[in-house]
Amino acid sequence: MKATITSIELRGPLKFFALTSKALKIIRQLKATNCKDFRKKGFWTTHYTMTLWNNEDELKNFARSGAHLEAMKASKKIAKEIRTITIETDCLPNWTEANELLQKGYVIKY
């Protein structure tokens, strides 16, 4: 199985409202998929998500469609930095391990 871990650092605390609007639509999209597990957490300007998928095709189909695709297109307006990593695993890691993995992940800075 594949897990994707993502962090987003917002441009400022007021961008939380834009993030929340997009996140609600993404969660609705996520619930209509075969996603095996999902976790989220965040505070102030830093937010995290983890998703677990059966395979990479399911993960990519989700990421490249619907509300998630629209959010990715708009990310430059609300994010200062996005980090992501996809790993092979049978279950989602704990948050401490997820943060360590993200340090090795792909980084987009705006």
Write the CATH architecture name. Answer: 2-Layer Sandwich
Uncertain regions spanning at least 5 consecutive residues? none
Return the structural class. alpha+beta
The CATH topology is given as Alpha-Beta Plaits
Helix percentage? 40-55%
**Alpha-carbon distance between the two ends:** 31 Å
- Give a count of the beta strands, DSSP E runs of length 2 or more: 5
Report the total helices.
Answer: 4
Tally of structural domains: 1
Largest sheet: number of strands, sense, barrel closure: 5 strands, antiparallel
- Sheet with the most strands: spatial strand order: 2-3-1-4-5
Look at the structure and give the CATH class: Alpha Beta
Give the integer mean of the pLDDT values.
Answer: 97
- Note the quaternary state here: single chain
Classify the beta-strand content into a percent band: 25-35%
Shape: globular
SSE string: EHEEHHEHE
Describe this structure in words.
- With 110 residues, the chain is α+β, with helices and mostly antiparallel strands.
- The protein has one domain: 2-Layer Sandwich (Alpha-Beta Plaits).
- Helices cover 41% and strands 35% of the residues.
- It has helices spanning 16-31, 56-63, 66-78, 95-102, and strands at residues 2-10, 37-43, 46-53, 79-88, 106-109.
- It has a five-stranded antiparallel β-sheet with strand order 2-3-1-4-5.
- Strand 2 and strand 3 (46-53) form a beta hairpin.
- Helix 1 runs antiparallel to helix 3.
- The protein starts with a strand and ends with a strand.
- The mean pLDDT is 97.
